[in-house]
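Q: Convert this sequence to structure tokens.
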Amino acid sequence: MLREALAAIPDAGWFGIGFTNFGKVSCFAGMDPHNSILQALVELGWLGEAALVLMIVVTLRSTWEAARFSQEGRFVLASFVYVAVLGMAHGSLCHDHLLFLFMGYAGRLYQDGFWAR
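A:
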């Protein structure tokens, strides 16, 4: 499936082939490539991929700073890294609820001023 997903990248274009449409263009009907980053590139295109990678980088950067000052920040950083790595091996954007949950949690830490604790 990874080989098929890599082969589908040139056809993805700026906006991709459509969310959850990977199964329609692969020989494995109804299956995702089991890699959230690669799935975003094929299904959401270059713009969707850039947005997802930017969210991941910003989350890592802000939780790295929060981890220096609070236990809650360390929890969010460790949990986010675990979920992100798991998403690289077995991920599906449709089921990556925890990835987006910890992105939001990191945003709340940043908004609340984790450095003031």
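The CA atoms of residues 79 and 103 lie 10 Å apart.
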